Amino acid sequence: MEFLGFVGTVSLLILIYLFLAVKIVSQAELWVIERLGKYHRTLGAGINFIIPFIDQKRSQFDTQEQIIDVPRQAVITKDNVSIQIDAVVFIRINDAKQATYEIKDLKVAIAQLAQTTLRAEIGRMELDETLSSRADLNAVLLTALDLASSTWGAKVTRVEVADISVPQAVQTAMELQMEAERRRRATETEAEGDKNALILKAEGERQQAFKQAEAVERMADAVKYEKEQLAMGEQKAMELINDAMMNNKDAASFLLAKDRIAAFAGLAASDSANKVIVPIETSEMVGSLTAFAALLGQNNSGS
């Protein structure tokens, strides 16, 4: 009986030892183990063995991405406008040892660091820039927080400015400014349209004047060409007359007689009741008629 009792006691002690020595760590968890008060190792997911009473779990971390809410705070912009702002920080633990021994409270430290970084960055920006450059502000915060938390065993994966609130008076002034800006843009657009219309009209008138000037120029060229052709014709006629006069001495008398006869015919055909016809010398008239008859006779005989 004593032996059975001893065996039972030993078995119970072994079971208790195994219960205390075997540690099952869940997935996405890290345990920091200290041996006699000093860091010993970090336990990962699965079955792990420790020495009971000598090894103790100091801390436990979740390796999943965690959210740290940065409390709302009042900050002042570069142009002295007080605004309310809050943010959200996403972190992931990648070194449980550093997260245990390098910082007292990791989440509180990151939240405080985010607040101070927000105040510093907002203080360098004007209100309009703060409202319109939220993505740039997120990038600056991410860089600053990730650099500071790198020694704490954490990785800052993302920072988002959740909300920016401005005082009601400032918001009303901004709305009035936006309305004035819209009216200014509308006026500029209308003026630009009128300007373009005037430019197009002037361009059309210029093109029309150019076409008219081109038409006048072409007309002048046509008249010039016509006069040149007439001049060339008259020159040709004069050359022919000159040749005829050189070849036939009665040609000049014929031409003169033809012009005189045409002149007398015109006078005779006029309706004036008081007309007076003064004849030229009889000998010249007869000579002209004789030359005319002789020229006609030559032409008939030649034909």
Task: Summarize the structure in words.
By secondary structure, the chain is an alpha+beta fold. Helix content is 62%, strand content 21%. The strands form three sheets. A three-stranded antiparallel β-sheet has the order 3-2-5. The longest helix is centred in the C-terminal third of the chain and has 80 residues, at 168-247.
What are the main properties of this structure?
three-stranded antiparallel sheet, alpha+beta, 8 helices, single chain, 303 residues
Summarize this, please?
This protein is of the alpha+beta class and 303 residues long. 62% of the residues lie in helices and 21% in strands.
Work out the helix count. 8
Mean pLDDT across all amino acids = 79
Widest β-sheet, arrangement of strands: 3-2-5
Approximate strand percentage: 15-25%
- Helices and strands, in order, run as HEEEEEEEHHHHEHHH
> What is the strand tally?
8
SSE layout and pairing:
Elements: H1 2-21, E1 22-25, E2 29-35, E3 38-43, E4 46-49, E5 55-62, E6 66-76, E7 82-93, H2 96-101, H3 106-123, H4 127-132, H5 134-149, E8 154-165, H6 168-247, H7 250-269, H8 282-302
Antiparallel strand pairs: 1-4, 2-3, 2-5, 6-7, 7-8
